Amino acid sequence: MNKQELILKLKTIIKPYTTNTEAFDNLTEETDFINDLSINSANLVDIVLDIEETFDVVIDNTDMERMLDVKTAVEIIETKLAAK
Amino acid sequence: MELQNIIAQLPYSKPFLFVDELLQADENSITGTYTYHEDLDFYKGHFKDNPVTPGVILTETMAQIGMVCLGIYLLGNELKKDTVVAFTSADMQFLKPVYPNEKVTVTSTKIFFRFGKLKCEAIMKNEAGQEVCKGIIAGMITTKL
């Protein structure tokens, strides 16, 4: 899976949890989940659990604390997939 | 763990404490009761001359017993000073009316508790054992939001 495919999958996961459709439509690697997409901490947990299920990976507390923007999320998922 | 100790740690007080007694708690579930005394203030207005317990109060009762009490248990009975409790979502069905002086029993089963978020499936029954309310509730019980 290349980075673009990964971001596309990530967008599908994020969609139900964001209320800011404009920021969602213009999502880039720099997009911040909390500040740009207006996702709260409770929904961020749901996104991380959906990432675990979709990509069949396990996210730990350290990863969770870093997973605040698209770029870091992609990095973490790529690292986890590579380690499988 | 002392169940009474969990109630003592709840961050609520009258008139917004909706837990009387906890009957059971373990890693996956909790059961507790509450009796809606007829003197509760909201009965004066919900409804005029026809007191029925509001759905939001039933939901709050489910959350206090099913989520906050269970959360305190899962945190090893340690609700620290800087722990924040926040109700984040509810998907409820109200099946039967609950009248003044009715005693209800709430049973809540953990769906997950990860990264500070506790999500549960909760059922409320009346004294006749009929389901009056059920749904999915979730909240954050964490030191930071």
From TrEMBL, chain A:
Q: The organism sits in which domain of life?
A: Bacteria
Q: What SUPFAM superfamilies would the database entry show?
A: ACP-like
Alphabetized InterPro entries for the sequence: ACP-like_sf (IPR036736)
* Record protein name field: Acyl carrier protein
TrEMBL record, chain B:
Q: Please give one Gene Ontology molecular function term for this protein.
A: lyase activity
Protein name per its UniProtKB record: Hydroxymyristoyl-ACP dehydratase
Q: Pfam families this protein is in?
A: FabA
As given in the record, the signal peptide range reads none
Q: Which UniProt keywords apply?
A: Lyase
